[in-house]
Amino acid sequence: MDTIVAGLPLWAFLAACAVTLFAGFVKGAIGFAMPLILIAVLPSFMSAQTALAALILPVLTSNLHQSLRQGMAPAVASGRKFWRIILATMVGIVISAPFVVVLPQQVLFLLLGVAVFGFALLQLSGWSPDIPPGRRNVIELGTGLIGGLYGGIAGTWGPPAIVYLLAAKVEKTEMVRVMSVIFTMGAVVLTLAHLRSGVLNSVTIWLSAAMLVPASLGMALGYRAHDVMDQARFRRYTLILLLLSSLNLLRRGIFG
C-alpha cells in the first residue's frame, strides 16, 4: 500500500515539494510566477482542485513576506499608490471564485494567453508602450478586474498586473513590492473564497501547509539571485517568463 502524506501518495507529495521549491526560487528572483508554475505542473499528478488548494497558503505567505521585505512603510506606500488595481483584483476574485467547480476554464486560458503572449513578444522586440496619465486610473481598474476574474478560477491573477507594471516602467524593487502587495491582498481573498467554496478543506489544507517549507526555502535562494540582478536583466527575465507562461496558458486553452 502506498504511503499517504497530506492526502497524496508519497511520490506525488515529494514531486509537489520539488515543484514548489523551484516555484519559490523563481518567485524570490523575479517576484511572481509561483502560482503559474504550480497550477501548470501540479495537475499532471493530482486533480486541478487539489493543485489549486495546494498553492493557496504558499502563495499567501510568500507574497506577504515579499511585500514586507523592505519594511511596512514602503508596502503601505505601494498599496496607496496602486489601490485601484488592488481593489479591482479583490472584487474580481470574489466574483469568479464560486464558479471554479462549474465554469469551463479553457476560454479564459486562451484569451489571457493570447494577450500576454502578444505583449511579451512585442516588449522583447523593443516595443515600449506609454500609458497616458489621464487613462492610468481606468486602466488600473480594468487590469485588476480582469486579473481577479481569472484568478478566482485558476488561482493566478498575476499576468495582467505584471503587464501593466512593465508598461508603466516601474523600477525593479518597487515593481516586485507592488506585485507582492497586489498578490497578497488577492491571496487573502482567494483563501477566504476557497474556504467557503470547499476547495480548501480539512484534507487539502494540510497539503497546502506542507508546501510552505519548500516554498520558503526556494524564496530564500531566489532572493539572492534578485539582489544581484540589474534592471535590464530583471525586465528581460520577467518578459521571458511571461512569454513562457503565456505559451502554457495557450496549451491549456487548446488541449485542456
From TrEMBL:
Name of the featured protein? Probable membrane transporter protein
**Annotated source species:** Pararhodobacter zhoushanensis
What topology does it adopt in the membrane? Multi-pass membrane protein
Where's it mainly located? Answer: membrane
Membrane-crossing ranges are 38-61, 82-101, 107-127, 175-193, 205-225, 237-255
Localization, UniProt: Cell membrane
Answer yes or no on keyword Cell membrane: yes
Q: Which family does it belong to?
A: Belongs to the 4-toluene sulfonate uptake permease (TSUP) (TC 2.A.102) family.
